[in-house]
Amino acid sequence: MNRFPARALLALALGASLAGCASLAPQPRDADISQLLSERGGPSVDWSSLSAPPSEHARIAQWLDEPMTLEAATRVAMLRSPRLREYYARLGLARAEVLEAVEIGNPRLSFQRLSVEGGGHVRSTGLSLPLFDLLLLPANARLAGKDYERARYEVAGAVLDTVADVESAWYAYVTARQVAGMREAVAEGTAASAELAARFHAAGNISALQLAQEQAAASQARIGALQARADAARHRLGLVTLLGLRGEEATWEASDTLPLPVPAEDEPAQLLELARAGNLELLAARAEAEVLADALGLTRALRWIGGSEIGYEREKEGDGSVLRGPDISLELPVFNQGQAKLARAEARLAAALARVQQAELSAENGVLTGTQAVAAMREVVQTHRLALVPQRESIVARQQERQNFMLIGVFELIQAKVAEYDAYQSYLEAVRDYWLVRVELARVVGHRLPSDAGIEARTPSLDAILGPPEAPAMDHSQHQGMDHSGHDMSPKAGDKPAPKAEEPEDEHQHHHHGATP
């Protein structure tokens, strides 16, 4: 019986050991992503929770029993978002590509048995390994590690994008819900006004034109309420989709207030520094360029020896003598000298360097644009809070006094109250837009904004804005000048129209049907 040569077995063991040294864990680890997220103020990700263990349902049920705050929405998304499951799969795919890159080709075992004329046989046994794979194994392992680093940046960036999308959807839904409530209150008030106008018209106190104007205003307000309700439902479904909830889990209630702007905004220079050092899209582009630069160097150095193999061969002649020794086969670069591979590697590197420059420009310009947008929206919010809303409230108070003395009719008072509600709606939408531009700024920076630590005060709730006249005034410590008394739009039973002599029919103008939907 012929024994396979010990040298051949040694070569096979050597190749296996080289492949084993370059092997990696087959599955990604939590630490591969969690560290990148925690360094940027992002949430922690437990990849194992994506398999939906029983404890997950208990945690989510506990969060859904309470009003859905922004923090709770983010935590639910980290556990249930289908997008995160896709990103986990992407990371696993990148891990598999790393494993594939550090593997060498399987050895080839050859066997021949030739008959010799006159009797006897010649048997030949050989073992060969791909020389090119062996030479490239250390370099491939290094490149694969760098490419996995790039994949980590991309997946972590995608997770932060998901968080930003959830935050934007939460701000949009909470605001849309408040706006829908305000539009409903306006619709109810104008409907009651139209009903009162019909009684006045039947008594001969107002003209047919005035009645038609009140009825048209009520119809317009009802249209606005229906549109606002549909808009709130659309935003809610968008948030539910991002959270990965369905069925009974989608019956949660949201918080009814928004945070006010932070006490002080971040300096642009600080945000630029954070973006240059921590923007994951930029880091991924740099890692890709580094990988391709190393790959180009390898292509230049090894393009002459592609397809080469080394091996060991043992041959037994018919007379019983044994021939043994190493074997090498080299590819002669006569026709294909690797020009195409080299050109491809150079082009890929040039494209990667261009992407790095584009990512740097996008990050820097995005930070500058974002800080300007935040500053502008902050001023808009302040103007609403300190000027427009208090002014509209003051107008309602003065009109209420005039109506009490029968200097104006109830319809003019309702017109002033509609304008006040419009101002509140515009204020809440301005607060929403302020936070939306901050979310986009944080997305560009690639890091939670440092000033987020100063979030404390919140906007008034819908109940506070629409509170009945007899309710005590709300705390104005964070809403200077906002008096929420007298917000009930329903006409009182004793309300009377203004004397007709003061305002002839052809000069009487009504603007309350211009309320924003």
From TrEMBL:
Biased composition (Basic and acidic residues): 476-502
Signal sequence region: 1-24
Pfam families (UniProt xref): OEP
One annotated GO molecular function: efflux transmembrane transporter activity
Disordered: annotated span: 462-517
Gene3D superfamilies: Outer membrane efflux proteins (OEP) (1.20.1600.10)
Keywords attached to this entry: Coiled coil, Signal
Keyword Glycoprotein recorded: no
Coiled-coil ranges from the UniProt annotation: 335-362
Family classification: Belongs to the outer membrane factor (OMF) (TC 1.B.17) family.
Protein known as: TolC family protein
